[in-house]
């Protein structure tokens, strides 16, 4: 039997046991809650991009790809049915290329800049070897006089598109290594000149002057953004201006096509031959008006306009969707350009700046050249509209190049980046130390005792140093 003195002790012991159990019971959910909150933060950080520019580029790219599949379906359905009794042949292939290209773009966006910098020169070597197979071996395949495709069985590809990405990565790697020697033209232009002339020369041997022109725009865009000196670039531009007439006149078909363009297609004898495509492309644009004739209602695609789903797809866009649709497409390319310029301005890495500038010059320059051809401002060059025109190699490699730029966008500083678990713990620790110091009357920075005004403690003014 317990004595009276034992009862309070036992009561205190029981109360302490119950309190301990209660604290244990309460601490378990709180620990689980903290773990859950940490897991939520960790999972959310996986889906948080480093910059809003990432989402802008990704959204515009995906919209242009989907829009391109729709326009390929509209512009190719008639000729596809006439050839294969299948309205959806070209559109199905374009959709398949998009399904392959978009995941590759997303995979490329997850790779850091140091990966691309490390493997850049290997990619250049692979691109040169594959392009050499086109012009030096029987694997090369000619379409309309351009030997720019490789054919293995039923598989065909355009290695020059791979070479574009390889060249821009190679220039970026060289500019990164030579970033402290940009004033010495020998250090910069000799290695870049060897890579550029080798790549563009192999394309010109195949007869594809349009692709060679885009590659030259790419090279100068990358060099300019990468920090090459303007006087050195002007020398290169002058050399190209001297060589361009000789390269142009080396092909009889190319020279006659340029002559017809310079004459304005006023010779009636050229209407059925050289001027058929540019004239009907202009007519298609003119018939669209402001709002267009409606999606799928084009008349030019009924075998009046050659390459309606490829080089002249912008003419079909203008005819079916009118001036409004054409301006929207131009606006999307402008948004893409502005987003890439943001990456260039915000990054301090010479490799990132150079590669982004090269991809910007490649995609936007090619879009402007294609649109200028449709408007009659340039002769027919056979350059597709990026992300929209039919073609697997061009679409997939353009998406991979945008994926490389997206990988750079992930490394930009974010304005509204979600704090990590470490940041939250550090902030909580600082707040706890500050609160404890305030309660103990010590300075949280030095730990010294704080001098507290007696009036502040009582809320009444002091008289002769004694609070009232």
Features:
mainly alpha, disordered C terminus, 468 residues, 3-stranded antiparallel β-sheet, disordered N terminus, two-stranded antiparallel sheet
Summarize the structure.
With 468 residues, the chain is mainly alpha-helical. It is 69% helix and 4% strand.
Describe this structure as you would to a colleague.
By secondary structure, the chain is mostly helical. It contains 15 helices and five strands. The protein has helices spanning 6-46, 52-84, 89-109, 113-136, 159-177, 185-205, 209-226, 230-249, 252-262, 276-288, 313-346, 350-374, 392-409, 421-440, 454-458; strands at 140-143, 146-152, 155-157, 462-463, 466-467. The protein has a three-stranded antiparallel beta sheet. A two-stranded antiparallel sheet has the order 4-5. Helix 7 (209-226) runs antiparallel to helix 12 (350-374). It is globular, with a radius of gyration of 33 Å. The chain starts with 5 loop residues before the first helix and ends with a strand. The model is unreliable at 1-27, 39-44, 415-419 and 454-468 (pLDDT under 50).
């Amino acid at each position: 039997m317990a004595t009276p003195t034992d009862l309070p002790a036992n009561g205190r012991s029981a109360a302490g046991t119950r309190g301990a159990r209660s604290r244990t019971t309460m601490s378990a959910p709180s620990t689980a809650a903290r773990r859950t909150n940490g897991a939520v933060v960790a999972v959310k950080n996986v889906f948080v991009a480093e910059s809003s520019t990432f989402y802008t580029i990704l959204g515009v790219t995906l919209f242009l790809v989907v829009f391109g599949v729709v326009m390929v379906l509209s512009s190719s359905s008639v000729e596809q049915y006439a050839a294969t009794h299948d309205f959806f042949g070209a559109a199905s292939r374009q959709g398949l290329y998009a399904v392959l290209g978009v995941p590759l773009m997303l995979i490329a966006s997850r790779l850091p800049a140091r990966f691309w910098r490390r493997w850049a020169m290997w990619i250049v070597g692979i691109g040169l070897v594959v392009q050499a197979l086109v012009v030096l071996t029987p694997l090369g395949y000619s379409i309309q006089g351009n030997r720019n495709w490789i054919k293995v069985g039923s598989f065909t590809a355009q290695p020059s598109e791979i070479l574009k990405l390889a060249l821009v990565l190679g220039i970026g790697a060289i500019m990164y290594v030579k970033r402290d020697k940009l004033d010495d033209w020998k250090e910069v232009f000799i290695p870049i000149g060897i890579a550029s002339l080798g790549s563009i020369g192999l394309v010109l041997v195949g007869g594809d002057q349009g692709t060679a022109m885009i590659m030259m725009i790419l090279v100068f865009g990358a060099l300019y953004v990468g920090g090459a000196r303007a006087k050195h670039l002007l020398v290169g531009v002058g050399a190209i201006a001297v060589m361009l007439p000789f390269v142009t006149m080396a092909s009889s078909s190319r020279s006659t096509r340029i002559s017809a363009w310079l004459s304005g297609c006023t010779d009636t004898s050229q209407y059925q031959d050289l001027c058929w495509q540019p004239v009907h492309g202009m007519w298609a644009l003119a018939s669209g008006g402001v709002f267009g004739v409606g999606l799928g209602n084009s008349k030019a695609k009924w075998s009046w306009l050659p390459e309606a789903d490829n080089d002249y797809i912008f003419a079909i866009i203008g005819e079916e969707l009118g001036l409004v649709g054409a301006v929207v497409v131009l606006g999307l390319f402008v948004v893409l350009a502005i987003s890439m310029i943001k990456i260039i301005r915000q990054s301090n890495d010479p490799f990132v700046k150079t590669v982004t500038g090269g991809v910007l010059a490649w995609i936007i320059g090619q879009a402007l050249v294609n649109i200028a051809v449709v408007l009659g401002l340039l002769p027919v060059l056979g350059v597709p509209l990026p992300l929209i025109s039919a073609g697997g190699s061009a679409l997939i490699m353009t998406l991979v190049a945008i994926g490389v730029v997206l990988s750079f966008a992930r490394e930009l500083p974010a304005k509204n980046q979600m704090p990590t678990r470490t940041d939250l713990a550090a902030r909580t620790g600082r707040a706890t130390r500050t609160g404890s110091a305030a309660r103990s009357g010590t300075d949280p920075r030095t730990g010294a005792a704080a001098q507290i005004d007696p009036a502040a403690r009582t809320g009444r003014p002091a008289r002769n140093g004694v609070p009232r």
